[in-house]
């Protein structure tokens, strides 16, 4: 297995993995975000995991966030925006290796914390995060109010 920063040539390899993680996202949005991650945009990193045959089996996206990140004590913070390992390749250390790469990238940026999130009902993600070394900090439920003219 090999973990490396993704290059533009890797985008087509990563595309199915990104689609699997975010199936409700528009494909153009997914492509643009991936291009930004491997482009010259500062504060973004996209890692690819390849098996011994060179096939893409996982990825991790990390972004530098300057806004408040729940449960963190510093700013800016490295944030694990997304991580996915193809099901046949899970439970063999690829996810942890991707998190390790994200941590090392964050350290090169001079950051002290790596944060992430998961939906409240995603127990598998919670277990993965704990196994990868994350500590749960808090649980939040977000609310929204429609401010359109009909809602008055």
Backbone structural class: alpha+beta
The radius of gyration computed from the alpha-carbon positions, rounded to a whole number of angstroms, is 16 Å
Number of helices: 4
Order of helices and strands: EHHEEEHEH
Walk me through the structure:
Helix content is about 30%, strand content about 20%. It is an alpha+beta fold. It has a single domain (about 1-150), classed as Gcn5-related N-acetyltransferase (GNAT) (Aminopeptidase, 3-Layer(aba) Sandwich), CATH 3.40.630. The chain has a five-stranded mixed beta sheet, with helices on both faces. Helix 3 (about 95-110) links the parallel strand 4 and strand 5. It is globular and about 55 Å long. The termini are far apart. The relative contact order is 0.15.
List the main descriptive attributes of the protein structure presented here:
single chain, 152 residues, alpha+beta, Aminopeptidase, five-stranded mixed β-sheet, 4 helices, 31% helix
């Amino acid at each position: 297995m090999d973990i490396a920063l993704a290059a533009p040539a890797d985008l087509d390899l990563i595309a199915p993995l990104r689609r699997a993680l975010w199936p409700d996202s528009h494909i153009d949005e997914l492509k643009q975000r991936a291009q930004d991650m491997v482009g010259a945009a500062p504060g973004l990193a996209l890692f690819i995991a390849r098996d011994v045959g060179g096939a893409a089996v996982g990825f991790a996206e990390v972004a530098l966030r300057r806004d408040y990140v729940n449960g963190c004590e510093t700013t800016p913070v490295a944030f694990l925006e997304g991580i996915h390992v193809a099901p046949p390749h899970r439970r063999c250390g690829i996810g942890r290796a991707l998190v390790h790469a994200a941590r090392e990238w964050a350290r090169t940026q001079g950051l002290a914390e790596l944060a992430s999130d998961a939906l409240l009902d995603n127990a598998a993600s919670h277990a993965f995060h704990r196994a990868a070394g994350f500590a749960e900090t808090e649980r939040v439920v977000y609310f929204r109010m429609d401010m359109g003219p009909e809602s008055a």
